[in-house]
Every structure is written in C-alpha cells, then in structure tokens.
Amino acid sequence: MAKFKQIFSYFPSTLSTKKFQGLFSVIEKLKGTTEKELRIVLLGLDNAGKTTLLKQLASEDVNTVTPTQGFNIKSVTCHGMKLNVWDIGGQRKIRSFWKKYLENTDLLIYVIDSADKKRFEETGLELSELIDEENLKGVPVLIFANKQDLTTASPTSEIAEGLNLHTYRDREWQIQACSAISGEGVQGPSSGMIKNSENDRLGNDSEYRAASQIHRTICERV
Amino acid sequence: MAEDSEWVVESIAGYLGSPEWLIPLTDFMENKCTVFDDEEENKLSYTEIHQQYKQLVEKLLENYMQEVGISEQQFLAACSSPFAKSKSLQALFQPVLATNDFQMFRSLMVQKNVELQLQALRVIKERKGALPDCLTDGTDVMSELEQQEMQILQEVLKRSKEEYEEELARREHLGQKVASTSTTLREEPVRNGSEPQAKAHTHAQPIISPSKKVGETVISERSSASISPKAPDYCSTETKTLPAVRAPVKGPALTLVSREKSANQAAESWLEEARKEAGISEPFQELTIAQQEQLQQRAEYLRQQRDKLQALKKGQKAKSAAAEETQLPPPAPTPPTPEISVEEKKKLQKRKHLAEKLKEEVIKK
C-alpha cells in the first residue's frame, strides 16, 4: 500500500481526477501498479501521421504504415515510465469512436499534417470538440505539427494561431514541430533510428525530443 | 488481519476456479472471440467487446462479494497480499485483471480463438479421418500472400508432374526400342511362358485404370473434349497413344480446384488452362451431349489402344530377355505412387506447419 501512496503523491492530479469507478478502481490497484503507467491517446485527422508517429516512438519500421481502420496500441518505456500509447484511426467515419478511448487519459497527443493547409479548419474543429470532452477535462495536450520535412509545411507558430491555442483556458498545451517519418522531433538520440550525425545535432537540442517533451508535460503537472 | 485476508484470498481463488465464475466467462469468451485475430491493428469492435466483458466481470464479482460478504476493501486487501501474488494465483486472477488491461484481454481472446480453431480442426480430423482440402490450406489463417504462394506452388507441382509423366511416357516408348541394350539384369532370367503373361496382365491393369479415369474426369469436367479431334494423332504414334499418362494429372488437378474453391479466380484460371492444354477453343458450356459421348467413345477407344499396346509389349517382352521385362513394369505402376506421395507430403507438411503455427500462438500467449 505504501507504493500506491507513493504513486498517488507522484501523480496526484492524474489519479485524483479519475472518477471512482466502483470495482474497477479496486482492480486497477489490484494490478499492482508499481510501475508508473501513463495512458496517452494519439488523435488527429486521417493521414496526419499518427501511426507513423506511434511506430517512431516505439522505434519500429515506419515504412509499412497503412491507413488505420481500428486502433493500435504500443507500450513505450520512457524515463522510467511505461507509456501506453493508443493510436486511433482518424478517418471521418470512425472519428465518432474517439470518445470511447478518452477515459483515464493522462495526455492527449494531437497530430496535424502541417502541409495540409486545406484541412486546418477541419482539424481545428475536431480538436476543439475533443477539448470539450468531459473525459479530457484538464488533460494536457501536446500538438505535433507533423510533416515538417515537407517544404510546404506551415511553421508551428502559424498552426498554433490557426488553432486558437492561446484561447485555451485551464489547459496545458504545447506545440512541437516534428517529422514522424524521419523521426526528427520525435525520437531522442537513444533510439538508434536516426543517423549518428543527426544524433549529435538532435542530442544537443532537447527541444527536438518529443520524448522528453512528453516527460516534461507530465512532470510539470505534478 | 493477515489470516483474515488469507481466508479471503482463498475464498476468492476458490470462486475464480468455480463453475459459477468459469462458465459464464468461458461462454462469453467463446462467443466473442471469433473476431479476434493476431493482426497488429485492433478492430474497433474489440473495444465494445472489452466493455461488455468488464460489465460481466463486474456483475459476477459483485454478486460473489455480496454472497460471501466481502467488502471491496477486503477484496483489495486480500488481492494485494503476498499470498495472492503467488504464481498459481496470478493465473486465476488474469481474467479479472484483463478487465482493466486491454492488451491482456486481447491476448486472452486471441488465444481462445486459436484454441477453438485447433479444437475444430481436431474434431474434423477425428470425424473425417483427414482434414478437407479447403482446411489444409488454412485459408483463414494464411495471408493472401501465402495463399498466392501456395497456388504457385501447386501450379508448379502440377506442371512438374505433367512433365514427369510425359517424360515417363517417352521413356516407356524408348524403353521398348532400346530395351535390349539399356537395362541391367535384376531378376533371374528363367521364366516359363505363363509367368510373363500373368505379369504383363497385372501391369496392364494400373495403366488401364488411369485411362478409365481420363474418361471419367474428362466427362465430369467436360473440358478435354478436343481429345477426340486429336484422336488420329494419338493412335498414329505410340507415345501419343499414352495420353492416359496425363490423366492422373486431372485427378490432383481436380482436387486443386476444390481446394481453391475460395479463390474462384484461381479455379477459373486453372480451368482455362486445362482447356488450353486440351486444345479446346470453345468454352466448356458449349460442349454438347454428343461431344460428351464422343469423349466416352474416345476413352473406350483409348483403352482398347492401350490393351493392344500392352499385348504388343507383352509379345516383345516375351521375346526379349526377361530382364527388361522385369525392368519395365516398375515404371508403369510406380509413377502415380511417388507423385502422389510427393503431393501428399506437401499436404502433410502444410498441415503440420499450420498446426505448429497455431500451437505456437497458443503457447506464446
């Protein structure tokens, strides 16, 4: 029980906001959560690069990604925490399912195709709807401005403005430029997915390390 | 307090091993597991099923706790006691933990699905002695790519068999010519008149039957009708009087079709090929009854030709040294056997592979 208390003190905001679910709060504790587990949900329009990002986070091959019809889950260990990352398909017809996956979420990662200007409005709309979800109340949002490797990609400042991120109240948010396909902005130097030369550059620039970004986002809340 | 929790753990463990718990849970899993495959991507329907599972477990556990009079606090305390962490109990608690762990739930369901599939395969095997062809391919387990590979493999097998049999026919033909020079003595040359006759008879048998088979398969398929136009060719040369050697191809080929029933296209393409091989220009549907009769006649005719050939051979053999006489028979009856055994082996291997794959999955998860 001491360990539970420790976790509680470590993540007071996370755990206390969770609704008491009767028996399942019991079962959750029963699981012996000595590990710090975080549930991260990856959302965004179709073709935003969610699954590629997920695979990149898990240091897997990103060349075999196909449009997601359902959802993918990967567990990534990061800074001693187990991150359970849920990537749910973004096609319009399955977006209505998103809300079934928001319960007990510790962090929302919202992925945007920075080069798809035509759909900025659509993606902004979807994000604002998510923000209003009861289950995501108070949950921090990390926005990945993906596909920065494309020359037509918009800069993060532009996207942040377009999404009216500054109007978000009672919500932590951050926007992060990245290229899920190359791993830039997603992976730390430890991944081995990035060439050594890049490692040196990225290694010095912690701004480009999404993993630590996620970590910071979580820790800042404690 | 420790004793108290120990008693509670034992009671809970007892419940988790009892039919009151196991039957509804197993029922649920068996009913819902069919959609769970081992694809990396999860289906949206999994979530719905997981929700239903949660509700079921919640209901069962709540009923149980009410019945026995355990509070949630006691339940929690018992479950987090070291006694409950023992390996044997962990397995019992797995279905409970799966309510809150989708990945665990998923692997339980996938495992159940594989178990059911294996069970079904076993039952089919027991009832029918062997698995039907459509199952040996494991169509629902194999990916499309594997299926394509299998089709190519079967096609290659078919081709090589044809070639082998053509080769055999040629050799048989050659054998008659070069008989006296090419062979080695393998049996005692002493032979009376009647023995070779009997021998020739027995060895004629297996050759006749395939020719019968031509007739049958051909008619049932209505595909090789054009053999008849070719008839004169066949009887003019002895090698070609042996189209029957191609007949065994039809047997396996037919099963090929049935095996690939699921892949309609494959079957069609095969039929198309068979038609081309047979040299038919018009589609099968246009074969008339008269043509079928022609086929039958053709089969009968072929059989007669075969008999004549055999008689001729018999005569030659009787004349030539008994050595070749004994050397010749083996190629004739044996060809189907090694061929079939190769095919059979492939099938067996396939089955074994499938079973191993399934078992592996069960064990792995």
Automatic annotation (TrEMBL), chain A:
Any single GO CC term annotated in Swiss-Prot or TrEMBL for this entry: centrosome
Q: Which CDD domains match?
A: Arl3
Q: Cite the entry's keywords alphabetically.
A: Golgi apparatus, GTP-binding, Lipoprotein, Magnesium, Metal-binding, Myristate, Nucleotide-binding, Protein transport, Transport
Q: Subcellular location, in the record's words?
A: Cytoplasm, Cytoskeleton, Microtubule organizing center, Centrosome; Golgi apparatus membrane
The record's section on Pfam families has: Arf (PF00025)
Positions in coiled-coil regions: none
Binding positions for Mg(2+) per the UniProt entry = T51, T68
InterPro entries, per this entry?
Answer: ARL2/3, P-loop_NTPase, Small_GTP-bd, Small_GTPase_ARF/SAR
Which PROSITE patterns does the record cross-reference, listed alphabetically? Answer: ARF (PS51417)
Which GO molecular function terms does the record list? Answer: GTP binding; GTPase activity; metal ion binding
Sequence positions that bind GTP = G44, L45, D46, N47, A48, G49, K50, T51, G90, N146, K147, Q148, D149
Query: Which GO BP terms sit in this record?
Result: protein transport
| Keyword Chaperone (UniProt) | no
Provide the primary localization: cytoplasm
Q: How does it sit in the membrane?
A: Peripheral membrane protein
What family does this chain come from, according to its entry? Belongs to the small GTPase superfamily. Arf family.
NCBIfam families of this UniProt entry?
small_GTP
Q: Per its record, how is this protein called by name?
A: ADP-ribosylation factor-like protein 3
Q: What is the organism field in this record?
A: Silurus meridionalis (Southern catfish)
Automatic annotation (TrEMBL), chain B:
Q: Which domain of life is it from?
A: Eukaryota
List compositional bias (Basic and acidic residues) regions by residue number: 355-365
Q: Pfam families in the record, alphabetically? A: ARL2_Bind_BART
Key word Cytoplasm present in the record? yes
Q: Show the segment(s) annotated as Disordered.
A: 169-204, 310-365
| Subcellular location per the Swiss-Prot or TrEMBL entry | Cell projection, Cilium; Cytoplasm
Enumerate composition-biased segments (Low complexity): 318-327
Give yes or no: UniProt keyword Disulfide bond.
no
How is this protein annotated for GO cellular component?
Answer: axoneme; ciliary base
Write out the entry's keywords from A to Z.
Answer: Cell projection, Cilium, Coiled coil, Cytoplasm
| Residue ranges of every copy of the BART domain listed in the record | 5-117
From start to end residue, where is composition biased (Pro residues)? 328-338
Similarity field: Belongs to the CFAP36 family.
Name recorded for this polypeptide:
Cilia- and flagella-associated protein 36
Q: Which organism is it from?
A: Silurus meridionalis
